[in-house]
Amino acid sequence: MYKKILSAVNEHINSEIAARYALNLAKACKAKLYLCFIAEKDTSPTSIEMAENAIKRLFIMAREMDIKVESITATGDPLKEIEKIVKHEAIDIAFAATKREDIEKRFYAGTFARRLSLNLSCSVALVRVVHIGRLHPNKLLVPLKGGDGHIKERAHFIAKMAEGFESKVFVFHATKPITKFFHGEIHITPLEWEKRLPENIAEFMRHLKKHKIEYEGKLLPGAVARSITIEAASKRHDLIIMGASERSLLSSILKGNPVEAVLREAPCDLIIFKPYNENK
After folding, report:
1. Residue 180: left (phi > 0), alpha (psi -120 to 50), or beta?
2. Per-residue pLDDT reduced to its tens digit, 172-214
3. CATH architecture of 4-128
4. Measuring CA to CA, which of 9, 25, 167, 279 is 20 to 30 A from 49?
5. Does residue 104 register a pLDDT over 60?
């Protein structure tokens, strides 16, 4: 599914760490990796040098992992230049690190990361780096909700990330409390999950089985964002992979946006994954 993977790199360390996630996905998929740095007109010589050095380190690492790799540098508007690269090279998925503004701004619709996810003609993985020194996630937490689409690609992305890091997947579904039937957490086997959960989540589990990925399932009633962050912190997960929220601005104001809440509170690295054509 992923034959060409792009990772945007700049002078900040979080972009280099995000690229390492792309590296491992490329290894698992036997894909070609493109490392790109787009220098804006006012970028300082020091920042350019730092970005170029990061690309050199990543390039060497890719070659050592036997990954086909190519580096691209350009000057101009980062979003427009990355769009050009994606179209010209027929990129399947692009990685980029989130910035501080994505965490501090309540509605991240106007941020570079958000515009990237909405405008690129490929799937997008936005990476929020929390732990700079933790580069090998062993436990992947995957929150899912009823109604999530593009299940086959979501499962493929997560399965290949797990394969690349030899990680275990923990599928997590936060529901509204059903006090009439139970209190607190429910721990059920993967087989029981497929009987109880929404069809799209059961389908996701079946795809993980096809990929031969080790996983566990968990059902927990409560607020979505809070449940995710508590689960990640209490069980010491290394990486959260969740879908991009397409809630409207008005809905976000009235109900809040789970993705933005997790962006602010995540106790570990976070990947916001948006399959291509998610909201077409």
Report:
1. alpha
2. 876 655 444 445 555 555 555 556 667 888 888 888 889 998 8
3. 3-Layer(aba) Sandwich (3.40)
4. 25
5. no
